[in-house]
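QA checklist item 7 of 12: single-chain prediction sanity check.
[x] sequence parsed
[x] length recorded as 183
[x] structure emitted
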Amino acid sequence: MKDREIIARQLDRSPQGLIGVPHRCRFGYPTVITTRPLIRKEGGFELFPTLYWLSCPRRVETLSRIEAEGYINKLEEELNSKPKLKEKYENQVEDYVRQREKLLTEEDRKFIENRGLERALKKGIGGIEDIEHLKCLHLHVAHQLAGENVIGEILIDRFQLEDCPSEDVICDRFTKDKESGYD
């Protein structure tokens, strides 16, 4: 089964603007995908400020639960009370923005200029403008797995966000379903 098919099953939809897979689990399945900042769609383009997208079903489920419990507020308090942590995070967000800008084609840049969307691409992880706030823990973990993100690192360490156990590899189910003819 090809990556694109596995990712579609992981996300329960076809991946948009897929560029590559910067991180895989120990079983070889995609855990993070890289997406284009500007996605070509029927009738034009759509700005997509998410560079790294978490596709691992196990991690997505765990992080959804952590978010639902209000952990973003706790991390914001921690981030804003520790100057060194905040400085490191700010530098990583700036690097994230630079990485995203490098992926733009000349055509993308013209489209963005013509629509006055330059400011939108200066936004941080998850489209956040205010560095004092966080959004979507999934994106921070994806960024950490693909590169460096101190918030993602904290989450991975505190919640043991690891690969599936050998006896229950979620993505194996996708390939077995396909082989058996069930969708």
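[x] summary fact logged: The CA atoms of residues 140 and 152 lie 5 Å apart.
[ ] second reviewer sign-off
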